[in-house]
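R.M. (postdoc): so does anyone remember the format we settled on? I'll just put the structure tokens first.
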């Protein structure tokens, strides 16, 4: 993977979601008539978000030479459920997308565990050097967290207004996942494999 400015990389990864959130705040109380159909501000913000996300992913791919499988999967889900949201003029489809993403990730990790394998180790083993036992622990924990986030999203979008769901989905769930992963780095340190220091040639 080619190196890229970390600030630019973060902007391309997080920028589209932030744009969606800010645009939603700006037009959430508006309605727009497009092709004879009236759409809410939320649906319009969703439709604007899709090409911005795809453009950011394309730029990231051109800069780094690769795109993570998770990013591709998320983009596909955004496009599919964004299209369903617009087609049926029903914002519930886009809200369900978050549940399905987390549920699929939990299922993928869970299936691997049934075979006593770590899907995470297969996907990230080249990035993070850790013993197999550590990968198995992290996989079990992350599968439970993804399942919990899927349930939490269902509860939030079904019981709370869109004004609550949008910031929770945009910031709350990612923050919870980030804090969880940060905590795992601390608790799984004994399983990390230290890289041997570079040997110094004899003089």
């Amino acid at each position: 993977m080619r190196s890229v400015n970390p600030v630019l990389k973060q902007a391309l990864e997080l920028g589209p979601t932030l744009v969606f959130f800010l645009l939603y705040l700006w037009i959430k109380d508006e309605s727009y008539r497009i092709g004879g159909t009236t759409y809410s501000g939320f649906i319009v913000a969703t439709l604007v978000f899709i090409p911005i996300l795809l453009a950011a992913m394309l730029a990231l791919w051109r800069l780094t030479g690769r795109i993570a499988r998770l990013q591709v999967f998320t983009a596909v889900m955004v496009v599919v459920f964004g299209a369903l949201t617009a087609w049926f003029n029903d914002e519930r489809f886009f809200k369900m997308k978050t549940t399905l993403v987390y549920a699929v990730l939990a299922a993928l990790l869970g299936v691997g565990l049934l075979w006593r394998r770590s899907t995470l180790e297969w996907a990230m083993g080249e990035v993070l050097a850790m013993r197999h036992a550590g990968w198995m622990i992290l996989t079990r924990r992350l599968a439970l967290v993804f399942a919990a986030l899927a349930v939490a999203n269902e509860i939030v979008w079904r019981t709370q207004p869109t004004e609550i769901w949008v910031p929770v989905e945009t910031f709350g769930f990612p923050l919870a996942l980030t804090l969880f992963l940060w905590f795992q780095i601390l608790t799984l340190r004994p399983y990390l494999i230290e890289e041997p220091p570079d040997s110094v040639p004899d003089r």
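R.M.: ...and that's the designed sequence above, right after the tokens. Also worth knowing: The first helix runs from residue 6 to 27. Strands lie at 31-34, 37-40.
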